Amino acid sequence: LPGGQVTEESLQADSGADCVSLELRAADGALVTLTADFRQEVKIFRALILGELERGQSQFQALCFVTRLHRNEIIPSESMAKLRQKNPRTVRQAEEVRGLEHLSMDVAVNFSKGAQLSSHIHNVCAEAKEAIYTREEDVKFWLEKGVDGSMFEVLPQGSDVPELQRCRLCPDRWKPCICSYSLSIEWYPCMLKYCKSRDAGGKVSSYKCGIRSCQKGYTFDYYVPQKQLCLWDEET
Asked: What is the tens place of the pLDDT at every residue in 216-229?
């Protein structure tokens, strides 16, 4: 990390459920979890953000961002399950920094119905029941797969509500605004590496011989009913 901080991460894979999860503590103290559900083509980011008690916030605030999982974003769960760390304390640096993704999360997900989208929403987003967000373009993809549309609710947009500003520019703590939250997954196995071997007859075959690691940052923009729910997003 810049400035020489080291982020500790834990990775888990469940090849039976075909999912992978990764947890890390961000530099600002937030606990960030990424869950990739390959079966449902869903990825879930959860952030537990420490609250500012002196400013009337609760101990922590939980957010869940649910987006479509694309092929080849992260290595398959059975490959992740086989990863063995020879030296768990080794400081690793990602080989590839993937571009920052800026996502406009314009739809809310109903927690009690969310299990139909991914069974992991129930466990991962339990503290974020009122703050689960996704995007209209991902919803379209899931609806085509037959997911029940009644779990989604389109949120007010800046284009519909001209007075809706970004929270960092909004002077009134009790007004609705568009909040921005950024997180970074510092190290994750994003691709499998293949090597070639030649048998005695000269026939060439390829086999899995390792992983490529990536780092990727995300910024999520989403509607909040009051700026009080978005106190980190201020002019600093």
From this structure: 999 999 999 999 89
pLDDT digits (tens, 9 = 90+) for 185-212: 999 999 998 888 888 888 998 888 888 9
**Distant-in-sequence, close-in-space partners of 28: CB < 8 Å, separation ≥ 6:** 49, 50, 232
How far is Cα 95 from Cα 79, in angstroms, rounded to an integer? 18
Side chain identity at residue 78, one-letter code: E
Q: What angle do CA 171, 53, 27 make, to 5 degrees?
A: 90
Our measurement of the distance from residue 172's CA atom to the centroid of its chain's CA atoms, rounded to an integer in Å, reads 29
Report CA-CA distances (Å) from 218 to 50, 99, 104, 150, 176: 19, 9, 11, 27, 23
Q: 102 has which bridge partners?
A: 219
β-partners of residue 226 are none
Helix (H, G, I), strand (E, B) or coil at 116: helix
**Residue 9 CB coordination number (10 Å):** 15
CA separation for the pair 79, 210 (Å, rounded): 10
Can you give 121-185 as a three-state secondary structure string?
Answer: HHHHCHHHCCCEEECHHHHHHHHHCCCCHHHEEECCCCCCCCCCCEHHHCCCCCCCEEEEEEEEE
**C-beta of residue 72 within 8 angstroms of C-beta of residue 61:** no
